[in-house]
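Researcher: Next entry in the queue.
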Amino acid sequence: ANSITTDFVEGDAGVAGRLVTIDDPVRVASISKLVVALGVMRLAEQGKIDLDRDVNQYLDWQVRNPAFPDTPVTMRQLLSHRSGLRDKIDYIVPLDGDLSQVLAKPEAWEAAYPPGAYFSYANINSPLIAAVMEGATGERFDRLMARLVLTPLKLDACYNWGEGCNDGRRAQA
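Model: Structure for this entry, 173 residues:
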């Protein structure tokens, strides 16, 4: 019979300059999209976000596919990867970066299909979803996610090593 070992780790802990341990926190990457969707749905339940409203109504800048300037982008499209945004550009926006400038580039968008018409997995949807959540609530994304999802679920987890992670966990990062 095969047994599964659940307490084995191997590898380098990256910038920590040591081997990884079983208790090290890890970046969960795309799995976090599910957690963000839970946060969005909580805001929708509270009436703070309408999944089918033009996201521009929550932002102080404009989001439009240059090839389809009259077609709104909605939160439902962003969550379901049907927004028209594509990962043809670097989707990691630095802390001092400007998401509105990144999304103003035509290469960030699908030119053949309007928003809502075509599925294509795109990471660049995530920073826009976070910006819409912030615009709808006036609350910083990491704090919002802690309040809406992580803390109620009693998870020692966080975005940006901020709200939701205990001091010990942050020190381990």
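Model: The mean pLDDT is 89.
Researcher: Noted, moving on.
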